[in-house]
Amino acid sequence: MASTARLLVPLLVAGGGIAAALLLHDGRWLGLDTGAAGTAVLVLTAWGALFALGRADLSAVENAVSPGEWRAWIGTVFTAVAVAYFVSKLRVFQGADLLHDPAVRAVTTRLVTLLVAWTVLSSMLDARWKHRVQRDERDAEVARQAAAWGRGATVAGIVVLAVTLGFSPADRLTWATPPMIANQLILLVMVGSLFEYAASALRYMADRR
């Protein structure tokens, strides 16, 4: 069972890659809405991993991957897909009517769907381990270091954005509309979360070796 549990991590990452490819295409392929399909693939992949955990012996699973690491890997995959999708669609927010533009609504709907799905899956993960210790001193140390990476990435991004806006000639800032800047700030928060989840997942993986 330990080897099976470890196998779920690369399968989760692979499913995230397929979902990202479909979301980045975000159009029609053989009559299929690839954006919706990408979201479905990501959610079903994560749900499938949790379903497999639900049928497994927890002691064997914890010997392979701890609850904290499961959360970190699922969070990394979900956030990475959301960031990649957001970056690919950021141009739609340049000078857009945020309330009435259908392209903006489509991007926002995808991102909100991913957020809701991650919230539900996170609750499912907590419920799976609700009667067991989910966080010890090691988990607290991993979380502290990962949070530092997340803050660092967010602060670095804000500094780069501020320097770009403050020192670029006006004729090179035609892209910097209020909607674009607002969404870039949201993106930086997401990137910070991605760094935090990824740093946590990689630290757990390094500790197992």
Write the layout of secondary structure elements.
Layout lengths: L1 H24 L2 E2 L2 E2 H21 L3 H7 L2 H23 L12 H27 L8 H31 L10 H31 L1
Antiparallel strand pairs: 1-2
Helix pairs in contact: 1-2, 1-3, 1-4, 2-5, 4-5, 4-7, 6-7
What does this structure look like?
The protein has one domain (2-208). It has seven helices and two strands, in the order αββαααααα. It has helices at 2-25, 34-54, 58-64, 67-89, 102-128, 137-167, 178-208; strands at 28-29, 32-33. A hairpin with a 2-residue loop joins β1 and β2. α1 crosses α3 (58-64) and α6 (137-167) runs antiparallel to α7. The radius of gyration is 19 Å and the shape is globular. The two termini are 18 Å apart.
Care to give the gist of this entry?
The protein is an all-alpha fold. The protein is built from seven helices and two strands, in the order αββαααααα. Keywords: Membrane, Transmembrane, Transmembrane helix.
